[in-house]
Write a structure and sequence with these properties.
2 domains, inorganic pyrophosphatase (n-terminal core), binds manganese (II) ion, six-stranded mixed sheet
Amino acid sequence: MFQRIKETIDNGRKFLVTSHVDPDGDAVGSAFALCLALTGLGKDAAVYLQDAVPYRYRFLPRPAAVHHELPEDGYDAVFVVDCGDLRRVGNGHESLGHKSFLVNIDHHESNDAFGQINIVDERASSTAEILYLVLKSLGVRFTGDIATNLYTAVITDTGSFRYDNTTERAFSICREMVGFGVSPVHVAANVYENHPKERFQLLCLVLATLETLSDDRIALALVTGDMFSRTHTSAEHSEGFVEYLKEIDSVEVACLLRETAHGKYKVSMRSKNGVDVASVARSLGGGGHRKAAGCTMEGDLDTIKNILIGAFSL
Ligand SMILES: [Mn+2]
């Protein structure tokens, strides 16, 4: 299954690894791990991420070349990790789509197989889990740096082994990575206990907008540009807020609406039991996983709320 990836790497010299805008732990960890592995195989490799690495992932051991502007082409292949859709790469995705040989490694059910090689397994806990298997098949030596990236990717995408993508394999990969030198307490301290106090000032404003709908089965909260400026924060500080809404006992679906421009919102959705938020997100032009998905919506808030309530039919 991974033979074509091996041939691509064996026959190439220069590679680019990229992932999605607003990168999460799986995006950063997978991109860094793959780039470090390619470098370890003697290749010339670089990472391109449109957005800056969020503060909580800055401790991750990083490759020498991490770009936030798409570098000139000339790559033998571009690895796109953790992106269900090439547009999620952000700036430069069109030129990548036209000019490059793309290797798509992902675990989103909504992945549309945009690559020349597609390794997509929606049963994998994380892209890092698939990557682990790819790197094993390539005979990569797992350094402590690669292991820390893969471990962090798996724990963040499984919500620290709380979500239903938490499988025996997710645990066993993490166990193996600890064997390669990962310090779980070091990772947890950076990812979960390293927030600036401004995050909590922002959270106060966001929680003040909390409302529950459809007999308390839908929880909805709002983050506006004004809240970011009042608390001197940005989108990275609101990562994970939607998870708090899901902690309400009666809630089946949690939605966080983040204003990205006037009248434009990035909607993050999470579900607890049977509701498939990926299909709702897809019907609204977005994508994701059954229990964690997102889309972009435009218009006035009441209309958006009504569309969401109707779409979830709860
Ligand atoms: Mn992921």
